[in-house]
Amino acid sequence: CTTDDMTKFEKYKEEILPNKRLTSSLQQALKEAEGHLNFDEDDQSACEHSYTSSTDLNVSEILEMNNQLQFQKEKAETSLKIFENEAEETFLNFKTEIEKLNEKNSILWTKNEEQDKIIKNLKTAHSEQDKTLQQLENDCLSKEANIKRLRNEINDHKEILRLEKSLHTKQMEVNDRLKADGERMNIKIESLTAENKNLQGKLDSIYNRTTNGANTVHKDACEYSKAATDTELDEYVKQIYDLENIIQLYVDQLTEKIKEIDYKNCIINEQADHIETLETVWNCDI
């Protein structure tokens, strides 16, 4: 086994033996070749040592040992050759597989780049969608705020309509009350006017009767004074004065009553004017 053989063997050993994809026969052949080489080196060293240290070793034994060494060398070379062939075939298979893997890797790399582009485009689209969603969310919030504001305005408008309806109802009630009060005032005015007219008639009648009575009394007094004594005349004059005082008192009472009726009539007229003003204002508001 030469140094070149050993170098080649070590090369194959380092490159191929650690690979787990070697066939079992190739691994076994490699181990046997390694065992033969190691045996040859050990035996050769042992033989050299035995040859130098022993003096009773004959030539036939040395030849036999040499033959064994030669046989072991040939066997090792055969195993090594088998190993080289299998290793070469395995190496070519590995090379073919590696080329296929490189081709697949290139295809996968191309697909990976395409997928990276797709992912980048998807990220860009996702970012745009995020912006769109954010814009939609903002629009929704704005519309929700507008809807809430409109709902509040509608509620306020409903409240205003309710208040207007209530106010209109109250205005109608007030108008009805004012109309009824006006009618009652008119009736009262007519009643007071009639009463005033009646009292005025009574006053005129009293005045006429008083005037007629006074004239009659004066006439009677003149006639009575001719025949009556002074005492009778004084008593008669006193009765006349008393009667005049009673008549004047009654006239004063009637005058106060007429003044009171006129005052009430004035108040009623003012209230009627106020009611008419209120009716005008309410009608304008309605």
Span between termini:
131 Å
Q: In total, how many domains does the architecture comprise?
A: 2
Radius of gyration: 76 Å
DSSP strand count: 0
Low-pLDDT parts are: 39-44, 46-56
Q: Tell me the major beta sheet.
A: none
- Which overall shape is indicated by the principal axes computed on the Cα atoms? rod-shaped
How much beta, percentage-wise?
A: under 5%
Helix and strand pattern = HHHH
Share of residues in helices: over 70%
Task: Report on the architecture of this protein.
This protein has 286 residues and is mainly alpha-helical. It has 2 domains: 3-118; 177-285. The protein is 94% helix and 0% strand. It contains 4 helices and no strands. Helix 2 packs across helix 3.
In brief, what are we looking at here?
Keywords: Coiled coil. The chain has 4 helices and no strands.
Structural descriptors:
single chain; 286 residues; mainly alpha; 2 domains; 4 helices; rod-shaped
List the helices and strands and how they pair.
Layout: H1 3-16, H2 24-53, H3 59-227, H4 230-285
